[in-house]
Amino acid sequence: MMALFPNDRLYQKSHEWAVIKGATATVGISDFAQEELNDIVYVELPEVGDEFDQGEAFAVVESVKAASDIYSPIAGEIVEYNLQAGQSLRVDPGHVALFDPTVDFGLTRVQGVKNIIFSGEGLFLANLTGPGRVWLQSMPLPNLAARLAQYLPKSS
Questions:
Q1: pLDDT for res 1
Q2: Mind spelling out the 3-state secondary structure of the chain?
């Protein structure tokens, strides 16, 4: 019997998964998502060389029930961390691309008014605790634009 969640894959809440080998990521959808779609009749794949932002639709799976977009789990420059048992990493949640199922993920509220206002991190940080691998992405473009917009002159 096949494992419900094969341990060579990194999963998103939206049922996409990725297997990263070197500079290549292979992306698919979970068995649960496939079963929910029922009989798959067509898959529209991206062209070679296409680039995608995290969360952007890059493929379509059609079944006898419905057509569903498949969303890219990663984007930008990706950095891998290998957390030891009990080792923690705190980062802006927008930077978290993927992590092993052995990594504990949670959100931590930023303490202190000055930190909340001036840190640029917002109210929450992602807290990832090992053991396991974590992939972080460079800041997604919409997040960067929102952070820079506050410094632009306002038009009247």
A1: 42
A2: CCCCCCCCCEECCCCEEEEEECCEEEEEECHHHHHHHCCEEEEECCCCCCCCCCCCEEEEEEECCCEEEEECCCCCCEEEEEECCCCEEEECHHHEEEECCCCEEEEEECCCHHHHHHCCCCCEEEEEECCEEEEEECCCHHHHHHHHHCCCCCCC
